[in-house]
């Protein structure tokens, strides 16, 4: 095939001069034989008939020429398409000549047909030459719609998921598809790209753009990629971010600092800015060689605050590290117009960590260890994993990555419960029984846990019972679908009430867990902003079940004094809040009352708060904020280059531009669409969170079963919040009918974490 391709590159020099028909590239002129061509694939000499007979030969079309038996399928299909198009155009010419009064159809040969741009999807074949070799016209290309280039009709135009493929793409042979995929795969492996790069929203459009141009397209060079193209991308991203920055003045913003250590043990801080229009990446700072004390961090934070604009910032979010907290408090004290807030997701993760602390909750810790033993055994043996996915869980996984490490623990326990029946079936099926795994010591141990350990499953059910309410709050504060500030305060109160109800309101059972939550909430997480957001959320404040009106009123007053420097404006806001509480004016309109729980609180204030502009502006700024800094995605490989010591100034600027573009494109993609893609627990992107659930342990490995090619692709993860029954029978009031009394009594008089370190 390679020889054929090399010949085709030079065959056009020997082709007849009548046209630049694409069929000529698959044949050569026979020296000394007039009007004869030789097929490049089977070497058959075709005498006379021009390009038409050549197309019949290559396309395998019955007629007066023998079909080529060695032509590739894609070329064969292309030739058939060309013949069909010529026939349609000849028929159209014939009808046209009759309509304009010619006595008989115009006598035209296939080679004389100049295909019009509107004749078919894809436009003209290319320039048709006259006897002097001069081109009569060029193919057209539409911008923003269907491509009309000379080769576009031979590529599938419809590639979005779920769409109907074109006839051409549907007719492609498996060999052609495999060949195209292998070409991409070989480049992928050679360039050392991560597998999850194929999930980029820009991946398929790039393939479509290349296919629209057709063969011969030369990809951008190294110089172009790191030069003008990168510069254009920076400009494009900056234009996108300009709209976000403009909104800060009205909605305010949350400045987020996320500190982490890369694989070279370099401490790095990423700075992002959140507002309802989207999250943007600001910059990344390497703090190697700097003291990690509050004073040093304060100076770094202060520069970033001034860059964003003090007047735009409502809160500054960091994790709960002692030095970060001290620097944030100092920053809050200096400016006095915004709050320092701890990351809500981090604080809730610490609550979940406390729930499985072996010093105080040994039963939970032991159950999680048993569950990990099950998943590690399955995910480290390809045959067992393939058996589970294919025959029992229908492609779904036993564990799934969550936003934090300890949330992953509890969600994985929940998944085990979901597939309890399927696991039991798997460990009793004929395939398992006759396999070598069922006879190994570790295989017997895992089967015994799944089939015979009743306490294990009862304890899993209990763990889900007490953790699920907090995991729901964690998902709320981590989501980008809506700002969480107006919901967090009430969500934490409801989570505690739900835990009490699930544990049958037995004080000795629920109190250890409630004390953990209260200690973290009171000493670390709670902020006046959360209370003010709750008061200003009409769907919560006016709910008859809401009982904390006095507490949220105090938090609201604190926010007014801090965030509004004008005393007259402060008085105006305090007066207008009484109108809101009493549902006076526009707040009391029937439509406003109906929309309290239906509308987004920011939209509700924008619609019904116009009568009270000072309060309206204040409410929108608070309700537009997030509660967590978990949006700070860590792109390890890119940051490794940026913060390397081996660089020059020009290269460093280029790499900073690269991170700026890549980070903000990822954030823009997340703002546009947050889909539920398949989350593979053994994907390198998720391996940090899933290490304790799928990581290799020598005592759990049985043989060298590493045939990962036989493993089914995982399906999209099931959302365990949306009505999936995980084996827990919950009453309407949140109570649990089936929790073992022995498990409840085991937590009696357990009093953990009466005093939790604020800086933990």
UniProtKB/TrEMBL annotation:
Localisation: Nucleus
Comp. bias (Polar residues): 1-13
Keywords for this protein: DNA-binding, Metal-binding, Nucleus, Zinc, Zinc-finger
A molecular function GO annotation: DNA binding
Residue ranges of coiled coil: none
PROSITE patterns: ZF_BED (PS50808)
Pfam families listed in its UniProt record: Dimer_Tnp_hAT, DUF659, zf-BED
Residue span, BED-type domain: 18-75
GO cellular component: nucleus
InterPro entries recorded: DUF659 (IPR007021), HATC_C_dom (IPR008906), Znf_BED (IPR003656)
Principal place of residence: nucleus
Ranges where the record places region Disordered: 1-21, 114-167
PANTHER family per record: OS09G0499600 PROTEIN, OSJNBA0013A04.12 PROTEIN
Name by which UniProt lists this protein: BED-type domain-containing protein
